[in-house]
Write a structure and sequence with these properties.
By secondary structure, the chain is an alpha+beta fold. The chain is built from eight helices and 13 strands. This is LppX_LprAFG lipoprotein.
């Protein structure tokens, strides 16, 4: 139980990295007469340039073995000068079990600082934050499995995936959080989409998306070519995924700091390896 709780918290931190690992802008307006497929191609190029942003996310999933789950929260991300993420998950429900008080995590490099009320009570911790190395959470293959599961929420990779769509079309103009956008809708075949990713990303993406068949998507793109909203929906043999992400504050200054040292305790090694 402890290992699962820690893993869930670390996976939440990993979600931050994967959900935002690369997106950017050199705000050149997209021409309104471009075909929908061309707009997606340009968006895929532009998202790889962003160095910071904010995302609000709601993820609902159903697994035939694990049951239903829901994760809802927000995060700040920066890639320069150093990778850092600040994540708050207000809701973390998995298979009918939840984490009271949610999760707060700050990721810096390979270290995540986690603040989870349930975890602290379980450990009898006297400090609100616990420092965990991602390599400390199970074995490396287990971490890779978590990364595989959440890689589909990496904005740069997801935008690349949707360019595999053969049926994308514009379905109108809409305002998203005050920004004028064009709404595009379509689907993409998982096998073909994975091949569009960098070689070192394909294996994890294939592992993650293997549970789904064709994935339906809706993406709202502003005149600067960057997505403001992304919705994904896929299912296969009882497994389902429904995710909605809102993006904003591209390339704006971000301040992400580790919690004060006197508020942080190390995860006991013996507890960290308990099943």
């Amino acid at each position: 139980m402890l290992k699962r709780t820690i893993s869930l918290a670390a996976a939440g931190a990993a979600l931050v990295v994967a959900a935002v690992a690369g997106c950017g802008t050199n705000a050149q307006p997209i021409q309104v007469n471009l075909a929908a497929s061309e707009v997606l191609a340009q968006a895929a190029q532009k998202t790889a340039e962003v160095t910071s942003y904010t995302v609000d996310a709601v993820l609902n999933a159903t697994d035939t073995q694990e049951g239903s789950g829901r994760v809802q929260g927000r995060m700040l991300y920066q890639s320069k000068p150093d990778l850092a993420v600040d994540l708050t998950l207000d809701t973390v429900d998995m298979g009918g079990k939840s984490l009271p008080g949610g999760v707060r995590a700050v990721l810096q490099g390979d270290t995540v600082y986690v603040k989870v009320e349930a975890l602290n009570k379980m450990l009898g911790a006297t400090k609100p934050w616990i420092k965990v190395s991602l390599d400390q959470v199970g074995d490396r293959s287990q971490v890779d499995q978590y990364l595989a599961q959440i890689q589909q929420f990496d904005l740069a990779n997801v935008t690349k995936l949707v360019t595999a769509s053969k049926d994308v079309k514009s379905v109108g103009n809409e305002s998203v959080n005050g920004d004028d956008t064009t709404h595009y809708s379509g689907s993409f075949p998982v096998d073909a989409a994975v091949l569009l990713l960098p070689a070192d990303k394909q294996s994890l993406a294939r592992t993650s998306l293997a549970e789904l068949k064709d994935v339906k998507f809706d993406i709202w793109v502003a005149s600067d070519g960057l997505p403001r909203k992304l919705a994904l929906n896929g299912q296969k043999e009882g497994d389902k995924l429904d995710a909605t992400l809102f993006f904003k504050d591209f390339n704006k200054p971000v301040t992400i700091q580790a919690p004060p040292a006197d508020q942080v305790g190390d995860l006991p090694q013996a507890q960290g390896t308990t099943n």
